[in-house]
Amino acid sequence: MLNGMAVALIDSGLGLLPTAGWLRHLRPDLDLVLCMDPEGMPWGPRSESSITQRVLTAAEAVAGMEIDAIVVPCNTASVTALEALRAMFEPGVPVVGTVPAVKPAAAAGEPFAVWATAATTASDYQARLIGAFANGQPVERVACLGLAEAVERGDLAAVHDAIAAAARRTPEHCTGVVLGCTHYPLVSAEIAASLPAVSTLYDSAEAVARQTLRRLDLPERPDTDLGTIEVLLSGHAGALPASAHAFPLGRAIASGERITRDLLPVAAARTPGH
């Protein structure tokens, strides 16, 4: 049962954990409902209509739970289904989406790369995002083959190999890297270690969590009591998959404990959720 203000997070898999972690850190008293879709994942290769339907179906599963806000911590789902979600829930329930942190990376004025899935790297969406926010400066696009899938499986050996391969293809002149998939912050420490020339990793999880609090008119209060965490798997009550336990943040969320700063992704960039 939900006890206080509640936020539902909708993603196909573990990509929702970094944003959930930041919400749990900034406002521990929020009740969180983690809506994952193991029956439909991955969403990336699906058609836009299919992604939208999967997202709306997940939202319908929480519609009767007195949810105060909905967060979509998935770039693909945000660009595809956010308008449909807002038409269903707003203005009564705010809906917050996620975009890769290209804008703050560009604002730093230093060369940077965007790490993303192969599909996102080749997408018109990423091209439009870079065109809109990179201020004309060149941006290196690095497809991280297999990294999101390895994170989803909790396969740390495959994670290591995928990061090493992406690091080899990241030009040495880049001093920043945008984490363009919401799975990647779960392994941000290893990504940072693989890129000694990179000073900043840009991620949007913290900013999306803070935007959610703003939409709810809630101040940051890390000292509050702990709220509940519920998990829905394709609409059915369940638990976080075993693969979540491969990551310290996943283990902490699964156990329902307080989330300390050291468990959260490094160098989260402050780019507003939209």
From TrEMBL:
Looking up Pfam families in the UniProt record yields: Asp_Glu_race
A single GO molecular function, which one?
glutamate racemase activity
InterPro entries found in the cross-reference section: Asp/Glu/hydantoin_racemase, Asp/Glu_race, Asp/Glu_racemase_AS_1, Asp/Glu_racemase_AS_2
Q: Which UniProt keywords apply?
A: Isomerase
| Keyword Cytoplasm listed | no
Source organism superkingdom: Bacteria
**What GO biological process term is on the record, naming one?**
peptidoglycan biosynthetic process
The record's PANTHER family line, in alphabetical order, gives:
GLUTAMATE RACEMASE (PTHR21198)
Q: What is this protein identified as? A: Glutamate racemase
Origin organism is Planotetraspora silvatica
What does the record give as the organism's lineage? Answer: Bacteria, Bacillati, Actinomycetota, Actinomycetes, Streptosporangiales
